[in-house]
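Sample intake — Gfo/Idh/MocA family oxidoreductase
Collected from: Dyadobacter frigoris
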Amino acid sequence: MNKENEVSRREFIKNTAGVAVALSIPSIIPASAFGANDRVRVAVIGVNGRGQDHIKGFSNLPNVELVTICDPDNNILQTRAKQYAEKYNGKKLKTENDLRKVYEDKSIDAVSIATPNHWHSLAAIWACQAGKDVYVEKPGSHNLHEGRKLVEAAHKYKRVVQHGVQLRSSVALQEAVKHMREGLIGNVYMARGLVYKWRPDIGDKGVSAVPEGLNYDLWTGPAEMKPFSKNYVHYDWHWHWNYGNGDIGNQGIHETDMCMWGLGVDSFPEKITSSGGKFLWNDAKETPELLTSSFVYPKEKKIIEFEVRPWMTNEEGGVGIGNIFYGSEGYLVVKGYDYYETFLGKEKKPGPTRKEGGDHYKNFIDAVIARDPKMVNAPVETAHLASGLAHLGNIAYRTGRALTFDPKTEKFVGDNDANTYLTRKYRAPYTVPEIV
């Protein structure tokens, strides 16, 4: 890791507490200069699932004009355009199947990316190269290598990049982190991340013909081309290594990010262990249903424990999805995206508590208008670090052994096999570029 990257990490912790159709890489387009009354023109890329909330979130902001939506499935795309027109007094959105056409449009200021995981980094990097500011869903990367490339691209092209971990914009959770920084629960040495979500049997639908209206080549993008299957198009790609990262890399990114934010760690751990597997369903999922991971920071004397459970389970401290932070003088519980409570001393006396959210989309737009990347609550470094923590846990599971990691080089120590999981073979022309 060079000194510039180390500095950016320190700044990240400090500041976040409170193509061309011809298949070439997009050229850089000068950023807009926004005035007080200007509206930011936004395109949403990927509108099947999470992208619907992006459409709603940006459409609710007075200084934003949603102009384009993009999806390789034309059936979904046209349905969303029709729904938008019905909801917003007949306003018509431009529709595109190929995100590279969106990046060619010089009138678009920012893009919001809600594609499957395997597209996140490449779509965001191409957007930065095309002069667009970027809101990118979690996880910001599908593997560790491309997460680092995204950080480099954001800085090189001077783009505002917001990672879609909206808990960073919660007023309550900002207050919770402030309490931990100020010593409310003493020396905070451990964080637990919990993802107890109901994940049923998905069956095995086998191979079938590509549905009419779906550009399957575009949908596959940088991933290995495999025969089409409803096992992964459109939602269950989460549970296949070619496209997703399991639940630690899905819902879990909110919690991995909260763990790192709350503990105040600004680098990757040195020791990683994971165990788990598929114990319930004999279905098409490849990723583990159950996963328990430990991430140790020996120099900082801190540890992150993370657990994914898929079915019947108790909650811990009232938490099914969230975090628990342990300190020498008490513990702090984070429930969901906007609520925390504290328990102090041996008697677990109730301490400060608060429930209040925030507007992550507005925070992004405010930073775009101000042309100030430091204003975003979830800067590009979180896309690399929080996502990367999940990747490390998955690699320990896939290799089946305890791993030692060097945070400076971002490589495993003496383990060539584990290092092969840090990147992937990209399918041309959907290749993550070197940023020089």
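Post-analysis note: Residues 171-202+233-357+390-422 form a domain with the Dihydrodipicolinate Reductase; domain 2 fold (CATH 3.30.360.10).
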